Amino acid sequence: MNTNNPVRIAAAALLFAVLAAGAQAADVPQVHVKYAGLNLNTAAGATVLYQRIRSAADQVCGVSGNRELARLEQAKACAAHVVGEAVAAVNAPALTSVYQAKVGGSGVTRLAVNR
Questions:
Q1: Which letter, b or e, does each residue of 75-101 get, where b requires 16 or more Cβ atoms within 10 Å of its Cβ?
Q2: Backbone angles phi and psi of 101, in degrees to 5
Q3: 60, 11 in Cβ contact below 8 A?
Q4: What pTM does this model have?
Q5: Which of 24, 25, 55, 105 has its CA 20 to 30 A from that of 61?
Q6: Which of 67, 102, 69, 99 lies closest to 85 in space, CA to CA?
Q7: What distance in Å separates the CA atoms of residue 39 and residue 48, rounded to the nearest whole number?
Q8: What tens digit of pLDDT does each residue of 100-115 get?
């Protein structure tokens, strides 16, 4: 685990829709989540990073401010997928524990198996 590199949160689920519409991959919204100052060996540090990841995923997937029910559900599914990908990429046991407590279960394990 390298805490000097930020996690890149990209709306992966939206990537395919954007590319299918003829846009460039650079047009996909992205947020870099920095965590160099956090101790990911503690629950407190892992929780702060989880909150940052969750917020960034909501932002790139368009969760907040979305009032159309169908699009809101798509945005929430996108955010859930992006959070799982980011948690798996960081590969920190305490972060994985926080994530599993929030989503209930072993989503990261299932995600890693499905890669």
A1: bbebbbbbbbbbbbebebebbbebbee
A2: -65, -35
A3: yes
A4: 0.71
A5: 105
A6: 99
A7: 10
A8: 999 986 555 444 433 3
